[in-house]
Structures are given as structure tokens and as C-alpha cells.
């Protein structure tokens, strides 16, 4: 079902007041797409790129009259080749591709406010189209044309700059998902957008791990945290985890030292794919406001 026709909405997400000093976008007063406070924001709309995989190719269903980017098919083909390749460890990605329960967004530059506006807009639509528990596996995949990634540390810096910019936008409308911690040093941390927690996986051309290395574009893959909790409740998480780690070892020769169970160490350490030292501190800062809890 397309985003334009899905009826389940996210109106249950709590709104908050804008934080002091923020650049406040137009008021969230629309009844047209009440789950998306940026749906009528000109800047967000200009950078939005919500692409749906269909039999005939990618479709821009939120704006049917607007053509897909000229490079969309090529980027999509490289993405599919990567996720279906033998060196990509996550078997759930194959399910997402085969079931077409993913959406693709293409943005110009990683680590920018422009990308943050478009990406927040598109993730709000994604959470509306794929409500919690609606599918076994879903992913929103954000591709970035630039800048050129020089090192793993460079990518990591851009990743956190991007997530920080997204949070600055999002915190004007939504509280942090209360099922996870907003403290990036906490073992219970998970990134929150639109009141929903996401586990973020970064892919880039300079990655040291084969599973995270791409040919050209950098990617941020947003996986709903709730789907992993469902797997745990159903007793299927350990089986999936073992399969992923076995494929990682087969490809790389060693298991990714950053992989750990949720609740053991902060998952923020895993987002970029870089092997961070034990004393690494996440640069992300939550914007404190009344209404959020730890």
C-alpha cells in the first residue's frame, strides 16, 4: 500500500513546544497529513525524496507529478547489488528487498540541515506508512550523493552531524521515544525521530568492514527499533543474530567487534561501523525540554 493511501496514522505521537533559540518552521496546524508536521514546509518539500519500489521501477508517490531524480535508478541498482551481495551480513535486508518493505530517499549532502529537513519529512511519512508491528522487517534507506568520504572517522563525523541536525528539527514537534534512552552513553540508547526509535546503520566507501563498504554513495539505514523487540518477544532474535554474525565472519574472517546486544553497551557505538575505542564518547546531544524522560 502506498504512503498516499495508508490510513494508519501517527497522531498518537506527543507534540512538544519549540525549544528556545530554534528556527521555528511554519505552525503544525494542518489536518491534511497530521502525522507529518513538515508536509507543507517549502524547504522540507524541496529536499524530500520518498521513493517507492514498484514493478516498473521507483515511483515518487507522495508527489506523483514530480519526476524521480535522474540518478535514482543507478543509485538504487547499486544499493540492491550491495544488500544482496555475499559480503553483506544482514539477512533481514534480503527480506526487506524481496518484500519491498523499504523506502529509499536520495539527498545531496550528508551532514547538512537541508538533508535533515528532507529526511525528517520522509521518515515521518515512513512511520505513517509502516506503523509499528505492520511488517516483520522494514527499513528507510537514505542515500547521500556527497561529500566525498575521506576516512571512516570523516564519515562518522558526518553521520553524527546529520543525526544532530535531524534531532534539532524533530525536537520542535516530537518527544523522544520513551521506550529508549536519549543519553547516547546509555546501554538503552536508540535514536528517535517522530517519537519512534530507530537503529541506524551507516554504510560508506571508506568502511573497513566489507559489510559496511559501498562503491560510491554513503547511506544511513533506519530500522525501527520495535521490530527487534518483537523478534525478542517471539524468540527469533537470537537465531537472526547468529545468522548475521556467521555471514560477517565468513566475509571478513572476524566478527565485527562493535556488535553487541541491546542493553549491554550503547548502540551509538555501532552506527558508523568504525571500531571506536573504549573511551569513545558520542558527540550527539539531546535538546533538553520539559516532557522528555530518560
Shape: globular
Order of helices and strands: HEEHHEHEHEEEHH
Radius of gyration: 18 Å
Strand order of the largest sheet: 3-4-7-6-5
Total strands: 7
Structural class determined from secondary elements: alpha+beta
The number of helical segments is 7
- The percentage helix is 25-40%
pLDDT average, as an integer? Answer: 82
First-residue to last-residue Cα separation: 35 Å
* Unreliable stretches covering 5 or more consecutive residues: 1-27
The biggest sheet amounts to: 5 strands, mixed
Tell me the domain tally.
1
Binned strand content: 5-15%
Salient structural properties:
globular; disordered N terminus; five-stranded mixed sheet; 30% helix; 7 helices; alpha+beta; 294 residues; two-stranded antiparallel sheet
Describe this structure in words.
By secondary structure, the chain is an alpha+beta fold. It has one domain. It contains 7 helices and 7 strands. The protein is globular. The two termini are 35 Å apart.
Summarize the structure.
With 294 residues, the protein is α+β, with helices and mostly antiparallel strands. Helix content is 30%, strand content 14%. The chain has one domain.
Amino acid at each position: 500500500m502506498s504512503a498516499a493511501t495508508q490510513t494508519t496514522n501517527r497522531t498518537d505521537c506527543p507534540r512538544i513546544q519549540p525549544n528556545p533559540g530554534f528556527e521555528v518552521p511554519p505552525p503544525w496546524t494542518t489536518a491534511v497529513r497530521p502525522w507529518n508536521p513538515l508536509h507543507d514546509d517549502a524547504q522540507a518539500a524541496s529536499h524530500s525524496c520518498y521513493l517507492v519500489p514498484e514493478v516498473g521501477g521507483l515511483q515518487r508517490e507522495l508527489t506523483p507529478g514530480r519526476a524521480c531524480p535522474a540518478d535514482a535508478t543507478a543509485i538504487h541498482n547499486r544499493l540492491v547489488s550491495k544488500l544482496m551481495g555475499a559480503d553483506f551480513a544482514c539477512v533481514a535486508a534480503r527480506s526487506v528487498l524481496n518484500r519491498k518493505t523499504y523506502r529509499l530517499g536520495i539527498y545531496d549532502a550528508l551532514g547538512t540541515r537541508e538533508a535533515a529537513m528532507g529526511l525528517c519529512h520522509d521518515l515521518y511519512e515512513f512511520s505513517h506508512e509502516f506503523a509499528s508491528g505492520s511488517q516483520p522487517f522494514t527499513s528507510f534507506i537514505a542515500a547521500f550523493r556527497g561529500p566525498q568520504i575521506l576516512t571512516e572517522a570523516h564519515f562518522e563525523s558526518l553521520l553524527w552531524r546529520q543525526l544532530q541536525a535531524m534531532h534539532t528539527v524533530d525536537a520542535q514537534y516530537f518527544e523522544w521515544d520513551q521506550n529508549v534512552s536519549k543519553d547516547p552513553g546509555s546501554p538503552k540508547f536508540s535514536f528517535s525521530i517522530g517519537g519512534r526509535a530507530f537503529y541506524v546503520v551507516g554504510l560508506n566507501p571508506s568502511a573497513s568492514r566489507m559489510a559496511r563498504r559501498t562503491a560510491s554513495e554513503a547511506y544511513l539505514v533506519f530500522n525501527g527499533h520495535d521490530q527487534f523487540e518483537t523478534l525478542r518477544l517471539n524468540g527469533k532474535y537470537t537465531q537472526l543474530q547468529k545468522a548475521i554474525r556467521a555471514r560477517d565472519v565468513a566475509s571478513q574472517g572476524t566478527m565485527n567487534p562493535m556488535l553487541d546486544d541491546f542493553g549491554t553497551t550503547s548502540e551509538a557505538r555501532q552506527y558508523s561501523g568504525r571500531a571506536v575505542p573504549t573511551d569513545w564518547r558520542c558527540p550527539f546531544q539531546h535538546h533538553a525540554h520539559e516532557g522528555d524522560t530518560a
